[in-house]
Amino acid sequence: MPALTLRDVATHCGVSTATVSAVVNGAEWVSPATRVRVQRAVDEMGYRPNQFARGLKTQRGYAVGVIVSDLTNPFFTEVVRSLSHALHAGGRAHFLCDTDHRSDVGESSLRMLADNHVVGLVLIGDSVPGDAVRRYVRRRGHVPIVAIERDYDLEGVSTLLVDSELGAYTMVRHLLGQGHRRIALITGPSLGGGSATFGREQRLHGYQRALRDVGIDPDPGLVVEGNFRYAGGQHAMRRLLASGRIPDAVFASNDMMALGAMSVLRDAGLRIPDDIAIAGFDDIPPAALTTPGLTTMAMPMSELGRAAAQLLGERLVGSGLDVVRKVFDPQLVVRHSSGHHAGARQSA
């Protein structure tokens, strides 16, 4: 059945399409009697304006553009889910673009959203290049932007981050407290997709600082690169095992890589945590479902999504600050994979 149009409502009421449009948009020149009659027809017939078409015609948007690095990673999925619900509660729709950690897709997605006149942008992860964001701000400085887990350090871009150095420091101190001394780290990539993620370098620094604080010099041979994905964790774990320098524990910079590393250890006949302990970062839903349960640092995924929606909402109604920078603390979640009985969450 074709969608109802302004003309359908106008024909039903015996008025012009301009009159129906005026009622729908709240114009004051329509007489009270006509307004009541048209609004009743709109309600009874179930007519809904095409907001997308309206935005193209008026050159004013209505939706929020969201660009995310990798929807196959539950961390990003949870942030987007929370953001989507918060935007909906505020009466906002959104356009969602997944870049698969590709900067070219991130840049083209930004151009597409600019052409569709979005009223705000949320950039989640690292896939939109800094130069592209800088150009967008110069052209459309009135459009509020919120970046999650990337620090663009640009005027006009609000930033929501997690203190990943503190989180990594807390995790390594936990592993040390379980008696582990040779602790390996699977980092994020130094080049390409994922390399500009705020937490990548921060987690390396936290790992190194925790070891030095107890008199252990970090061993470069125990630090291997992954790519923030399951397969990257598998590859990194195989490299550690092949090196012959078997660690007591492995701290992966996100849960997806930790889960990949666990699969390799199982295939090798090694027991977790009896032979090698494992820990991750994010606390995605599968972390609690795997066997053994994965010790991890919980990222405030829902809070990040809600905070982004709130910042945009405040900017759009003119009540918010121009730029906000907020840093959240992660929480230590202890499960069996680190060699400790599961316990309550602890603030980092």
TrEMBL record:
<feature type="domain" description="HTH lacI-type">
    <location>
        <begin position="4"/>
        <end position="58"/>
    </location>
</feature>
<dbReference type="Pfam" id="PF00356">
    <property type="entry name" value="LacI"/>
</dbReference>
<keyword id="KW-0614">Plasmid</keyword>
<dbReference type="GO" id="GO:0003700">
    <property type="term" value="F:DNA-binding transcription factor activity"/>
</dbReference>
<keyword id="KW-0804">Transcription</keyword>
<dbReference type="InterPro" id="IPR046335">
    <property type="entry name" value="LacI/GalR-like_sensor"/>
</dbReference>
<keyword id="KW-0805">Transcription regulation</keyword>
<dbReference type="InterPro" id="IPR010982">
    <property type="entry name" value="Lambda_DNA-bd_dom_sf"/>
</dbReference>
<dbReference type="InterPro" id="IPR000843">
    <property type="entry name" value="HTH_LacI"/>
</dbReference>
<protein>
    <submittedName>
        <fullName>Regulatory protein LacI</fullName>
    </submittedName>
</protein>
<dbReference type="GO" id="GO:0000976">
    <property type="term" value="F:transcription cis-regulatory region binding"/>
</dbReference>
<dbReference type="InterPro" id="IPR028082">
    <property type="entry name" value="Peripla_BP_I"/>
</dbReference>
<keyword id="KW-0238">DNA-binding</keyword>
<dbReference type="Pfam" id="PF13377">
    <property type="entry name" value="Peripla_BP_3"/>
</dbReference>
